[in-house]
Amino acid sequence: METRRICLTAAFDGTDFQGWQIQDNGRTVQGVLEEVLGRMHRHEVRVIGAGRTDSGVHARGMTAHFNTDIASIPAERFVPALNGLLPRDVRIVRSTEAAPDFHARFDARWREYRYMLCCGSADPHARRFSLFLDRRPSVRRLNRYAAAAAGEHDFSAFCAAGDLSDSKNRRIMQAVWVPFGRDRLEFRIRGTAFLWKMVRSLVGTMLELERDAAPETAMSEILQSRDRSAAGTTAPARGLHLWRVNYEQ
After folding, report:
1. Would residue 103 count as lying in a domain?
2. Which of 110, 112, 117, 119 could form a disulfide with 243 if both were Cys (CB 3.0 to 4.6 A apart)?
């Protein structure tokens, strides 16, 4: 039977998920999507995502693809069709027909994550999606630390134990802290790929360095050490959002 490849852009609140990838135990985003698509198609449907998100991590723009043999649903109509069946903490925001050989993971040019902080306030509406700090850190100092991450480096110092990547080298195109108003702060990082818990390790380390007024060279020294024990703690998952995945050259 003839099939089409459908590309989805999904948003989800990761609070009650054990991450994106299907696991033996625990609710996952991939598992929820495959269960709903299986009901629609009346057979198993495999969903491939642009990457993995850890337990508690959110997404505004996760890209995924699947093959469909349902000819009666135009590509764009998978948005309402899926949202009518999905739980409310997962939404499909876009669906298009892709080339037969399109691959959500391997065709991605870069991925952008954002880490959200509330500084000096405790907004109850942001509690599931931000890290609360009881102070306002220096954005200028944080950006001096962040600058060390730009470029291609071995990020072993910011990689969680158990990462199975053959190489710990990653290319970062942007790493910047952006303030919003009096009490919001956002870390934006864009790269070709990321190691396990790398972004959260970078955030936790930079916040500790800023708190301790460490010299601006401290981040570079940690990076060059390739030693995880030289870096700081891993920031909580709730502040991290997969913002978008880009496929353009």
Report:
1. no
2. 112
